[in-house]
Recover the amino acids of this structure.
């Protein structure tokens, strides 16, 4: 099972790296109002989210982090990533969603937020999509446990509705060790 989850994570990383190479090789200039941005789509429960791919450093299979005392509930612990100590946050817990058992599809998205590295545990990653600013519609404002500053808007791709996240607002806070 461990080998299978590594294979799945490696496959997701290969797809991700292919999209990054493609994005880095594109040199077209677009109108700033219609500027297209690539987003990595991920799953949390039955919902699909999207985060700016330029914040993604790598995708790894989930491994149990070293637990830290006096850390917030959503911080699962830390891992040593090639000599860098990386805090690992469970996005389900950060967003006040129901906790779920980790399985072979659970991955950690390693993010670079303003020079700081942090990991985000998600149920799985799907693909990379390109969205223009016109594709992202404002999200309705509800009284909820999820802070509205974490959401940039909603995007419709065929039958899929993506919740486009502001990953810097979501992951950039003193609780995680990142100050914006």
């Amino acid at each position: 099972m461990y080998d299978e989850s590594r294979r799945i994570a490696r496959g997701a990383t290969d797809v991700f790296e292919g999209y990054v190479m493609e994005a880095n090789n594109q040199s077209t200039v677009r109108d700033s109002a219609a500027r297209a941005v690539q987003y990595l789509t991920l799953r949390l429960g039955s919902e699909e989210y999207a985060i700016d791919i330029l914040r993604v450093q790598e995708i790894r299979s989930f491994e149990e982090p070293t637990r830290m005392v006096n850390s917030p509930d959503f911080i699962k612990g830390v891992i040593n990533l090639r000599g860098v100590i990386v805090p690992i946050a469970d996005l389900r817990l950060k967003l006040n969603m129901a906790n779920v058992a980790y399985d072979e599809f659970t991955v950690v998205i390693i993010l670079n937020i303003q020079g700081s590295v942090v990991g985000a545990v998600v149920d799985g990653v799907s693909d990379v999509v390109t969205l223009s600013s016109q594709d992202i519609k404002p999200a309705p404002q509800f009284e909820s446990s999820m802070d509205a500053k974490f959401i940039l808007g909603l995007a419709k791709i065929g039958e899929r509705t993506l919740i486009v996240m502001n990953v810097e607002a979501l992951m950039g806070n003193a609780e995680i060790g990142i100050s914006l």
In short: The chain has one domain: 2-171. The radius of gyration is 16 Å. The chain is about 20% helix and 40% strand. The CA atoms of residues 27 and 38 lie 14 Å apart.
